[in-house]
Amino acid sequence: MESIPVVQLDPNHAEQTNATIVTGHAQVNGKFYVRLTHGVYQNLRRSISWPLITLFFAAVWIPWGDHPLVLFSFSERRIFLGPLQLSWYDLPLLAGLLITGAALLFFMAVAWGRVWCGFACPQSIWSWIFIRIEDWTEGSAGQRRRQDTRGLSASQWARRISKHLLWLLVALATALTFTGYFVPMRTLLPELAQWHIASAVWMWVLTMAALTYLNAGLVREKICQHACPYSRFQSVMFDADTRTVSYDRRRGEPRSAQGDCVDCTLCVQVCPAGIDIRNGLQLACIDCGACIDACDKVMNKIGKATGLIRFASEHQLSGNASPLIRPKLLSYLLAVVIGATAVGWGFSQSSGLLVEVARQRGQLYTERPDNTVCNDIRIKAEGLIADEHLVKVAVSRPDFELAGPGNIDLQALAGQWLNYRVCADHTEQPATPLVFTFSLGDEVVEKPFKFLTYHR
Ligand code: SF4
Ligand code: SF4
Fold first, then answer.
1. How does residue 262 score in pLDDT terms, banded at 50, 70 and 90?
2. Within this chain, do residues 140 and 185 fall inside the same structural domain, yes or no?
3. How many A from CA of 141 to the centre of ligand 2?
4. Mean pLDDT of 185-213
5. What pTM, to 2 d.p., does this model score?
6. Nearest CA to ligand 1 atom 5
7. Could you report the per-residue pLDDT of 348-377, keeping only the tens digit for each?
8. Has residue 244 got a pLDDT over 80?
9. Domain final residue, candidates 329, 350, 371
């Protein structure tokens, strides 16, 4: 980033310091100070992020039957999503859901750039929470910069310590809530309070808290720039019709002269990524729209039309029309529709009774002295129906003998392999088709099986 001699960074706190000044951002020891702003896009961001934050913290507390609204239970080997109960067998459906989500993300990236990053990504949302706490405890960006360059007084030290304590508190609450998605809160909190929790859980909570504190408090935009693969994908997905946050160079330049840009650097001071959008589209830009809001306020003040910085495509900026319907956009939309349909169909087909039937290893059949032949098999059953726990096992041919538990009690034997033996007269065909039927309440699952015997 090019260094330019900007003296007055913050009109409210105009003052020259010994800080390095980089295109509008004062940097002290490599740290820049994000100035908060208001406007249409900041309101939009808040109206998206607050419901998401509320849902994140509330979902582990809202009861749904015997469980919280969302729970990934390792002990029960179930995923509870409101009325839906998924087993680990349904993980492909969750994978399908993630792939559909990725296609939706790509669709948004082609249409509007990194709006997900700027408006809904947890990394951005938590960074804004931490920036807000910083502003509340230590003062505005200009005040914080002056404190860092002059040194802290006793009261400023107290404010700084309180900032870090609040950050730690939010980080701990985040880590506990996140853990609550795997261990129900009503179990987790009492066990934590009584120090009865496994040391692995403690380590997990503390690691998550430390990562949240580091990510949102100290590292922030560097995660987006260096650790998130999405910032790399964007250059592949963007095209000349992608409407992303852009500076209208034709209108703004030359700055502080005939152009509309008055070079106040407010768009740079409010940028959480620490960049100057006037230098063109950059990898670090998360499309949060803060620079649009800041610049629109300046334009309103000087009586010029807003939109010097706006969501616009390369074609629009060069004065050409940008079509709304584009093949690339349509193909991603098609992928979203196909993915959502397939996952929806998969959910509608998922059963409340899960059964596996497998032949015993190393054995095709056994002959008995009474001229019968037997196949040894293993059966495993799991159920997702709360009130039912007895699985009835039957075989399609009444003349076949089935040895093994006629009912599987899921309360005692869910997920355990049980040994069965199915026998028939030796005159049966070498690969006789059979069907095992399993019933749990109204759920019926049929499993085909080939009964093996010898060639006569
Ligand atoms: S350049 Fe503008 S849209 Fe991009 S990250 Fe900075 S403030 Fe947000
Ligand atoms: S683009 Fe707008 S906010 Fe940025 S320096 Fe120019 S006038 Fe100021």
1. very high
2. yes
3. 18
4. 88
5. 0.78
6. 285
7. 887 778 899 999 888 788 888 888 899 999
8. yes
9. 350
- Counting the structural domains of the chain, the total is 2
Q: Do 242 and 338 share a domain, yes or no?
A: yes
Expressed as residue numbers, the domain containing 42 is 1-350
Q: Are residues 383 and 416 in the same domain?
A: yes
Say if residue 167 is in the same domain as residue 269: yes
- 315 and 360 both lie in a single domain: no
Q: Is the CB of 286 under 6 A from ligand 1?
A: yes
Tokens of 345: 């169909």
Distance CA 268, CA 288 (A): 13
Distance in Å, CA 272 to ligand 1 centroid? 7
Tell me which of 350, 383, 399 is where a domain ends. Answer: 350
Instruction: Enumerate residues 6+ apart whose C-beta is below 8 A from 192.
Output: 176, 202, 205
Ligand 1 mean position, distance from CA 249 (Å)? 16
Backbone angles phi, psi at 20, to 5 degrees: -75, 135
Buried b (16+ CB within 10 A) or exposed e, 415-443: eeeeebebbbeeebeeeeebebebbbeeb
- pLDDT tens digits for range 111-167: 998 999 999 999 999 999 999 999 999 999 989 988 888 888 899 999 999 999 999
CA of 38 to the centre of ligand 1 (A): 14
Closest residue to atom 6 of ligand 2, CA basis: 261
